[in-house]
Design goal:
The protein is an alpha+beta fold. 51% of the residues lie in helices and 16% in strands. The protein contains 25 helices and 21 strands. The strands form 3 sheets. Strands 1, 2, 3, 4, 5, 6, 7, 8, 9 and 10 form a 10-stranded mixed β-sheet that branches. Helix 2 runs antiparallel to helix 10, helix 2 crosses helix 12 and helix 10 packs parallel to helix 21. The two termini are 45 Å apart. 42% of the residues are buried.
Length: 800
């Protein structure tokens, strides 16, 4: 311990005399440690931390064809027959208007089976959960989230048993869930209340697939065994009900996999990226330490001469490096805290799974401490060993002035090559993501999102929520919005493209034979007001738009998208063709340009728009999404839009109000985030590599001042000396670029699922990043090379 304390005191004194070196080293380490810790904390929170349910590894999701919800009748059959999945529960999206003294608010929620909370193994913070008796009592019961309890009820401890109005019905609050509880973690992530799911009106419904099915594996049962049983049940249902289940498979997916599957690749790529940045930082610090060690050769030789062992010198050097790593780690943790907060602010709400759990926790702090120590060892062991291994006699004679030593030059060259190789891999990844984003931004959405405000208006819980008055009220809302200041036009639709839900219904074409069971046609179901296509700037390619005359008294009219027209009536016009859709006979009166539906990169499916005034019931839909085309910034119109809606009725709640550009940005957040972070980390790596190259070459020139002076005194040309210095500096750069190019070609293949419109080995991207890296390296080499020619021979020889 006394020796350790002595080494620490010496290290601190030595570092205080080399403040520039110490500050630079701490900053470089802090950057690498901070970035790595921040991304690790995100990976740990999202990918590695178990879901906050009882025995989460046993929880699974059952989905039709791997991604679709299940119908009530199918769910009840699975629940009754499955033996490997018990218990089994279902959830259905639900939203309701909560009235208050000051405002009415639309609250997102879920309707769930009575056994859902028991399946999850989560007990309420206050009150109780649902029971089997509740399911048959017919009483409207409610569980609320901790956040809703605090926001709307002030954390009232007497909330249990209280009656609250939802959509003009009275619900009894039976419990408050604990603060961290979120369900479901991959869908309806903003749910703040849960009520009982009543399937009694839909016991035989196999068409309306609206249920997400959750289950728990029985002890000793694997996912593969459960999948085999569910395949058998799905096959039996297909034989019993061929019209609805002929080609309907069922997939059993672990809940954790369903939650993180879409973001795993993005997060792992980012973690690998910051690991590269950390290694580059360590290489840079090692180069700095090597340079300093060469300058301290005589000091180390003196210590050996008076009795210090080489092991003691290595330990002393590592202690000094450890002091720097501790300071860099502390600064890195501060950077990590700030980075995680900034990342949370950048992400759209509820976009990343478990987003509200992002934090620098104890595991992340331990990780930061571990990589700080690892960084100290990585950056300090080679310089310490070289300094301790110097020949005492040569060092004391100050022999070889004007040279840096072959071993030192070789080590520094290897470190420079490693920095260049790692930087090239990062630049290649960033280049691919940048090109992907450019391709995504060039995708034709089919509509113009600029100058477009969207907002949802709900009639649920109001006196207007019945077939006789819905259309009248929504017409008035449209008229008031269209007359608001700064508004050019306004209309409404049941669900927005890109940001909205997708409802599909089967249809048939008049005059064509019926298709075999399981092969029927289906299309996205859209209910649009007149003026919708104008407000969205969706072109009507053929035929006409809806008008106010397309009401219940007029013949049924439909507008279809271009994709459907080409698929179903190739080589002929679809105008005037008749289809049966949603239980009604419709005539195609228009063909609209394709609009992206739920997936930005996939080709649109068949889509049928029906006139809202002909379908005011809209399958019982109590809300519409209004699109407001504005002359000014959409955000500037929001206040006027709220006022316009309140003129119809001050209790009409507005939700989901945002610019359409934000809707698209929310859809593209994953490639945007990957592009931004990869670009930042690649830029940092490029700067660190340039600093490392410059530092090594500049130091080499300073050490060779006498040699260069003698050469110039003997008649060497300045240009020749510059070329020689430049050539020597570029050798490790070219070697590192070759290794990095091979590594990048191999590693970027792992990014395949993140790319769009280009391959992981895109030659233009690789050629561009290689040219950028070589240009920066050449510039970093050129400055010291030019300085070498400015050495005054008389000044250099005077030191002899």
């Amino acid at each position: 311990m006394p020796i350790l304390v002595q080494d620490l005191r010496y290290s601190l004194r030595a570092l205080s005399r080399s403040r520039a070196f110490a500050i630079t080293t701490v900053l470089v380490l802090a950057l690498g440690i901070g970035a790595t810790t921040a991304i690790f904390s995100v990976v740990h929170s999202v990918l590695l931390r178990p879901l906050p349910y009882s025995h989460p590894e046993q929880l699974v999701v059952a989905l039709h064809n791997g991604r679709n919800p299940v119908s009530p009748a199918d769910f009840l059959d699975y629940q009754k027959s499955a033996r490997s999945l018990q218990p089994m529960a279902a959830a259905q999206y639900w939203r309701a208007n909560l009235a208050g003294s000051d405002r009415t608010e639309t609250i997102n929620g879920l309707q769930v089976s009575a056994n859902m909370m028991r399946l999850l193994g989560v007990d309420p913070l206050l009150g109780r959960s649902f029971t089997a008796d509740d399911a048959v009592s017919g009483t409207k019961l409610l569980l609320i989230s901790h956040a809703l309890w605090q926001r709307r009820f002030g954390g009232d401890p007497a909330i249990v048993g209280r009656q609250i109005p939802l959509d003009q019905a009275s619900y009894t609050v039976i419990g408050v869930m604990p603060p961290p509880f979120r369900f479901a973690p991959f869908w309806a992530t903003r749910a703040e209340m849960w009520t009982l799911l009543d399937l009694s009106p839909r016991l035989n419904d196999r068409d309306g697939r609206s249920l997400r099915v959750f289950a728990r594996l029985r002890p000793g049962v694997t996912v593969a065994q459960a999948q085999s049983e569910m395949d058998s049940l799905a096959h039996s249902l297909a034989e019993l009900h061929p019209a609805t289940n002929a080609k309907l498979g069922i997939s059993v997916v672990p809940l954790h996999e369903k939650v993180v599957g879409q973001v795993r690749t993005t997060l792992l790529v980012l973690l690998a990226t910051v690991a590269f940045v950390f290694l580059i930082a360590c290489a840079n610090v090692a180069n700095l330490t090597l340079t300093r060690a060469v300058a301290r050769r005589k000091e180390m030789a003196l210590r050996v001469a008076i009795g210090a062992t080489r092991l003691r010198l290595i330990r002393m050097a590592l202690t000094e490096m450890l002091c720097l790593a501790i300071a860099g780690g502390a600064a890195g943790i501060a950077i990590a805290f700030a980075s995680v907060r900034a990342l949370s602010a950048m992400l759209p709400p509820a976009s990343l799974p478990r987003q509200d759990e992002l934090a620098i926790g104890p595991i992340a702090l331990l990780f930061a401490a571990a990589i700080s120590i690892a960084g100290a060892i990585l950056a300090g062991i080679v310089p310490a060993a070289q300094a301790a291994g110097a020949r005492v006699g040569e060092a004391l004679k100050d022999g070889g002035r004007g040279t840096t030593g072959a071993t030192g030059r070789s080590t520094r060259s290897i470190l420079i090559a490693a920095e260049v190789a790692l930087s090239l891999v990062l630049l290649a990844g960033a280049g691919l993501m940048i090109r992907t984003m450019l391709r995504l931004q060039s995708v034709d959405a089919g509509f113009d999102p600029n100058q477009l405000l969207t907002l949802q208006v709900s009639l649920a819980g109001t006196d207007f929520n019945h077939d006789g008055r819905r259309a009248h009220v929504f017409r008035r809302v449209r008229e008031e919005l269209a007359a608001a200041p700064g508004v050019e036009s306004a209309a409404a639709i049941n669900h927005l493209p890109i940001g909205g839900d997708i409802w599909t219904l089967g249809y048939s074409i008049e005059g064509r034979p019926a298709l075999p069971p399981g092969e029927g046609l289906s299309a996205a179901y859209r209910v649009a007001m007149p003026g919708y296509f104008r407000a969205m700037r969706i072109g009507i390619l053929e035929g006409r738009d809806f008008t106010d005359h397309d009401d219940e008294a007029a013949p049924g009219a439909a507008i279809i998208n271009q994709a459907m027209a080409r698929r179903r009536w190739p080589g002929e016009s679809a105008i005037g063709k008749r289809i049966r859709f949603g239980g009604k006979q419709l005539t195609v009166v228009g063909i609209a340009k394709n609009a992206r539906q739920s997936d930005w990169t996939s080709e649109p499916d068949d889509e049928i728009y029906v006139a809202y005034y002909q379908r005011p019931d809209s399958m019982g839909l109590a809300y519409l999404t209004f699109v407001v085309c504005t002359r000014i910034a959409p955000e500037a119109v929001l206040s006027a839009a709220r006022t316009a809606v309140s003129r119809v009725d001050r209790n009409l709640p507005i939700s989901e109000a945002q610019a359409m550009t934000h809707v698209i940005a929310d859809r593209l957040w994953r490639p945007r985030l990957a592009t931004f972070l990869l670009g930042v980390f690649a830029a940092v790596a490029l700067v660190l590599a340039a600093i490392g190259i410059y530092g090594v070459i500049a130091y080499s020139v300073r050490r060779r001042t006498q040699e260069i002076g003698i050469r110039m005194a003997l008649g060497a040309r300045a240009a020749d000396l510059s070329i020689q210095v430049f050539r020597e500096g570029m050798k490790p750069v070219l070697a590192g670029a070759a290794v990095g190019l091979a590594a990048a070609l191999a590693l970027t293949r792992l990014m395949g699922t993140l790319l769009y419109g280009i391959t992981a080995t895109d030659p233009y991207t690789f050629a561009g990043v290689v040219m950028i890296l070589l240009a920066v390296a050449a510039l970093a080499n050129l400055v010291p090379a030019i300085r070498a020619t400015r050495v005054d021979p008389l000044t250099a020889l005077r030191h002899e």
